[in-house]
Amino acid sequence: MKRNLLWRGILILALVATSVALILPLEEKINLGLDLQGGMQLVLQVHTEDALRAEADSDMGLVIQQAEEKDVRGLQGRRTGDTTFEVAGVTPEARDAVADIASRFLTGYNYSVADGRMTFEMKSDYANNIRQMAVSQAKQTIDNRVNAYGVVEPVIQEASGYRIFAQFPGIDDPERVRRLIKNTAFLEFRIVRFPEGGGGVPTRDAITAQFNGRLPEDLEILEGDIRDEQDAVIGKQFYAVEKRRTVTGRDLKTARPSLGQFNDPIVEFSLTPEGSAKFGELTGNNVGKPLAIVLDGRVVSAPRINSRITDNGLIEGGFTQQEAQDLATVLRSGALPAGITYLEERTVGPSLGRDSIQKGLLAGLVGTGLVVLYMLIIYNLSGLNAVLALVLNIVLLFGGLAAFGATLTLPGIAGILLTIGMAVDANVLVFERIREELRAGRTVRSAIDLGFEKALSSIIDSNVTTLIAAVFLFQFGTGPIQGFAVTLTIGLLASIFTAVFVSRWIFDVVLSRRRVQRLSI
């Protein structure tokens, strides 16, 4: 019996020591959520139709490229909707070849041929997959960007309706984070067809007039800024650039801020081996022509290609040092696959967070004090058993939070208070069962044994049903709701352990040290 008590005591001591080691120092080991630390909370809507259009453009280009490799030329593509496009110029002789390409490479489309045109429409499951991938990629990109910015313990989660829920505790510049997140940062390198001098023209009409009022199918007009000597924007200029996107930001290996020859902030970049090959071919075939550096659909600069360029380059655009740093960050973390808008934004100041901590701590102390007082009054010295188990419960709960790297939020504090109440509730069930057995004439040891045995099923039932609810809250909730669920789950597991295992051990220790004829309960 004593050996059994010893091993049970060692197990309890080991768990308590481990928990104390995990939570000390408390301010470093327990992460505080947005509502306690202050910071920024966003709900973002991902425009997944952008990803659908980009995918349709890519697949349309793939059909034409594969057809040219089979000596089928003269095909022209045009996107007719978010998920549809058509390829014109399909002669009867080329029909079988183009159909073979579609069946091999575009399995996610339904297609048909009529009047020399092949129309393509995405299948619903393929389109839904692209939408979901766009949300996942946007989440990962935002995560990469804010981690590079230095936000500690951000919470970024996918939500229903193609949305992203994000919390950034402890930030001191919400506007910069807002810009850093929303910038699509889609980088492209495109050949400028007009004007050939490298600079833009003041109006769109000047470009269309160059082409007799009708822009060729393979060109589009993009705008850029005109800057003065102090890099201030003083106007707009326009370029006719090729639609073909040979090299994009997906081909980047890295990007970093630097200084140009006049000590102006620039962004240097290097390309992947595959990107270097494509960039070398693009620049080698167009020496002497302007190369538009396009960022988010706007021309940042259009330098002339003096020689073949392979793996390195730079972006100049009148940036400030911070803008160059942020641009390099978003380029390194990748472009967003689709545009986003803010559905909800909430900023919590650090003073409000401190006030929440103080009020939460006060509520916890008052609630715990009342529970302790009640147990001591109603159950006398046996109430002290419940109080000791409750203290261990709180230690184990915080140890669990630290071990799992969980974030403590204001709803999480509510979860702790609920855990305290449920922990004591388990003790109440056990103590009332022991009282019943003592009234029935049982000995103290027999009453304790039967009390724990008969109360165990009720304790397990009540805690398991609450655990099931906590699991659903964690699965379908976001942010603070998940914080409440995590805290409640850890607290319930600790409650079962302390109310059944620790509390019983304390009774057994007392009974082993002296012969108890009467139990104060």
At a glance:
The protein has 521 residues and is of the alpha+beta class.
Could you characterize the architecture of this molecule?
The structure is a single chain. The chain is of the alpha+beta class. The protein is 55% helix and 21% strand. The protein has 14 helices and 19 strands. The chain has helices at residues 2-23, 26-29, 34-37, 48-69, 92-105, 124-149, 174-182, 204-210, 273-284, 321-333, 350-403, 410-439, 444-476, 480-513; strands spanning 31-32, 39-46, 76-79, 84-88, 109-114, 117-122, 155-159, 163-169, 187-194, 219-227, 233-242, 247-248, 252-259, 265-271, 291-295, 298-301, 312-315, 340-348, 407-408. The strands form five sheets. Strands 9, 10, 11, 12, 15 and 16 form a six-stranded antiparallel β-sheet that branches. A hairpin with a 4-residue loop joins strand 3 and strand 4. Helix 1 runs antiparallel to helix 14 (480-513). The longest helix has 54 residues, at 350-403. The chain is elongated, with a radius of gyration of 34 Å. The two termini are 24 Å apart. The relative contact order is 0.12.
